[in-house]
Write a structure and sequence with these properties.
Elements lengths: L1 H15 L10 E5 L2 E4 H9 L3 H4 L4 H19 L7 H25 L4 H12 L6 E11 L2 H12 L4 H8 L11 E5 L6 H8 L10 E3 L2 E13 L8 H23 L22
Antiparallel strand pairs: 1-2, 3-4, 3-6, 5-6
Helix pairs in contact: 5-10, 6-10
GO molecular function: peptidyl-prolyl cis-trans isomerase activity
Pfam family, one: Rotamase
EC number: 5.2.1.8
Length: about 280
């Protein structure tokens, strides 16, 4: 009797085991013959915001995702046969997803201490001395004659901010009364930076010429700044290291690729949506 029971148990395991083998290709449902797999559900869950699934039992989440995928599949089947536009759009999505997957792995690696220190040295160059930052405003015009007239107007008591808002051609600072905010000299073109460094707080410069035109500058304030300590900005450095790795990977892959561009095609073709059958 015991032998018969053991034999029956072994036979049941033989029959049932393969039917319940679970891998990414395990079919969890079919819609008009099209399969939905366990791997697809797992990938779908990985793409969900954890906050949306927090506290939701696995059984309930399973039912919700499977129901959504069944609905999605049933509707998507109505797109067959695919139009040229659908085919093109799916190929774009495929490339974008795969590229993102590759770069996500590159960015996912935890930066080493040496990489973080190298990023710090690159950003701050081993600086130990304080640097001077300036807060200035300017009025930018096209000609020296305009700049001279503005300088004269300011000497007669004209309001710098009002004149900047009215006459400055700088689209960013002009509407903000010429305010440039805080900056370090190396962030500005040389003639502008040299003029600022030679000024005293509250002083207005004579017209200064750069490749952008003629500037009348007002030095609002200046201050000393110390470079941040390494330990204080490790998180920011880690982000920068990851960005640099991603950019380097992109440049590497492009450089190693054989790229052949078709010559003679007009950019006007971008507007020919009829080529997609629309």
């Amino acid at each position: 009797m015991l032998k018969q029971l053991l034999a029956a148990t072994a036979l049941a395991a033989t029959l049932v085991g393969p039917a319940f083998a679970q891998d990414a290709d395990t079919v969890v449902a079919t819609v008009n013959g099209e399969t939905i797999t366990l791997g697809q559900l797992i990938a779908m869950r990985q793409g969900l915001d954890p906050q949306t699934t927090q506290g939701l039992p696995d059984a309930a989440l399973w039912d919700l995702m499977l129901d959504q995928m069944v609905r999605q599949t049933a509707v998507a089947q109505q797109a067959q046969p695919l139009s040229k536009r659908d085919t093109a759009a799916l190929e774009i999505e495929r490339r974008a997803y795969l590229a993102g997957s590759v770069l996500e792995k590159v960015a996912g690696a935890e930066p080493t201490e040496d990489e973080l220190k190298a990023a710090y040295d690159q950003a701050f160059g081993g600086e130990t001395q304080p640097k001077i930052e300036y807060n200035a405003a300017h009025i930018l015009v096209k000609t020296k004659e305009e700049a001279d007239a503005i300088e004269a107007q300011l000497k007669d008591g004209g309001d710098f901010g009002a004149i900047a808002a009215e006459k400055s051609t700088d689209p960013t600072s002009g509407p903000n009364k010429g305010d440039l905010g805080w900056f370090q000299p190396e962030q500005m073109v040389a003639p502008f930076a040299d003029a600022v460094k030679a000024m005293k707080k509250g002083e207005i410069s004579a017209p200064v010429e750069t490749q952008f035109g003629w500037h009348v500058i007002k030095l609002v304030d200046e201050r000393e700044t110390q470079p941040p300590k390494f330990d204080e900005i490790k998180d920011q450095l880690a982000v920068q290291v990851r960005r640099d790795k991603v950019q380097a990977e992109i440049e590497k892959r492009v450089a190693e690729s054989k790229v052949e561009k078709t010559e003679g095609l007009s950019p006007d073709l971008l507007g020919k949506t009829e080529l997609l059958g629309e």
